[in-house]
Amino acid sequence: MKRFAFSLLKCHPKCSAIFLQRIKVIPVIVVLFCVGIIWIWMESARKPADIVYCTVNDELRYKLKLENLDVPIVADASPRNGNPPEQRLVHLDLKGAPPKIAYLKRLLPMLKVLGATGLLIEYEDMFPYQKPIEHLSATNAYSRAEVRELLKAATWAGLSVMPLVQTFGHMEFALKHEQYLNLRETISSPDSICPNRKESMDLIEQMLMQIIEMHLPIEEDGLVWPKFSHLHIGCDEVYNMGQCSRCKSKSKHHLFVSHIKKVTTVIRNRWPHLKVVIWDDMMRSMPLNELQDSQLGDLIEPMIWAYHTNLNENNFHEIWMRYASVFSTVWAASSFKGSAGETAILPPIRKHLENHLQWMALINIYANRFRNGIQGIALTGWQRYNHFVGLCELLPTSIPSLALCLSVSSLGYFEPNYNKTSILSTLSCPQPKNDRWIDLSTNEINVNEYKEFRDCSFPGQKAMEFSIKLHSILDATRHFLIRINFDHSFLSPYAVKHGFGSPINIEWAVRDLTELESQLQNILMNAEEALADYYDKYTINEVIEQKIMPLIDALKKMKENAEYLTSIQVWPRRPLN
Question: Is 237 a catalytic residue?
Answer without folding.
Answer: yes
